[in-house]
From TrEMBL:
Classification via InterPro entries: RNaseH_sf, Tc1-like_DDE_dom, Transposase_5
MF terms (GO), sorted A to Z: nucleic acid binding
Pfam families membership: DDE_3 (PF13358)
Organism classification: Eukaryota, Fungi, Dikarya, Basidiomycota, Pucciniomycotina
Top-level taxonomic group: Eukaryota
Chain ranges of the Tc1-like transposase DDE domain: 22-167
Protein name (database record): Tc1-like transposase DDE domain-containing protein
Length: 220
């Protein structure tokens, strides 16, 4: 809670324009045939889910896809489906950072969001794949600035709302019954996400900081 409050206070006076230079990236699991819920699992950094254990589970019959994406204001990265058994930190640089994050940050510079990548700030959670020595070195080599993100704070990350909306649309509009249909639906919904929805997520950031500060006042 203290880290959340410190983060909110440090960014309390940030404007929407300030937040427009933050790159929000995240991973999400999409399960075939699973109804949409907003269930959360709270964990300490030491209790992070083993991503390999979230691959297709043949014993239980669960079929899962792990995806990665990033947004910066109303602009989206390309969507990446992370292969099963290649979800640990040793693969993350080649599977996500190089083909997904780096081209996206270059694109943001090209369209004028920032003069260079150093003006952008990356938000990624404290999962081991993001904090490994190899990942840290990769960020340093590419001069990527990162937030000191507070733990247990998915509510402060607007891309979490995007995952929920995608899951809702996929379930109710496509209702895929096969994995190839689920994969296709994920790409379609991501690529056609309304501009105004992405813009609304950006505009919500000052209110998210206000929420944390107000909640702390109520407690004390």
């Amino acid at each position: 809670m203290e880290q959340r409050l410190e983060f909110a206070r440090a960014h309390f006076h940030w404007t929407v324009n300030d937040w427009s230079q933050v790159v929000w990236m995240d991973k999400s699991l999409f399960e075939l045939g699973k109804p949409v819920t907003q269930k959360r699992v709270w964990q300490t950094p030491e209790q992070k889910l083993d991503l390999d254990s979230m691959a297709v589970n043949h014993q239980s019959g669960r079929q899962l896809l792990m995806i990665w994406g990033a947004i910066c204001g109303p602009i989206q990265s390309k969507l990446i489906i992370i292969p099963p058994r290649q979800r640990r930190e040793v693969y993350f640089i080649d599977n996500v950072y190089k083909p997904g994050l780096l081209p996206f940050m270059d694109k943001l510079v090209e369209v004028g969001v920032a003069v260079n990548c150093e003006e952008l700030t990356l938000m990624e959670d404290g999962a081991p794949i993001h904090t490994s020595l190899a990942s840290q070195q990769w960020h340093e080599d590419h001069q990527i600035q990162k937030f000191a993100w507070p733990p247990s704070s998915p509510d402060l990350n607007p891309i979490e709302n995007l995952w929920y909306k995608m899951n809702f649309v996929i379930t109710n509009l496509f209702n895929p019954k096969m994995m190839d249909k689920l994969r296709k639906a994920i790409y379609i919904v991501w690529d056609t996400m309304p501009f105004n929805h992405l813009e609304a997520l950006l505009v919500s950031m000052p209110a998210r900081m206000q929420m944390v500060v107000d909640k702390n006042r109520a407690l004390f």
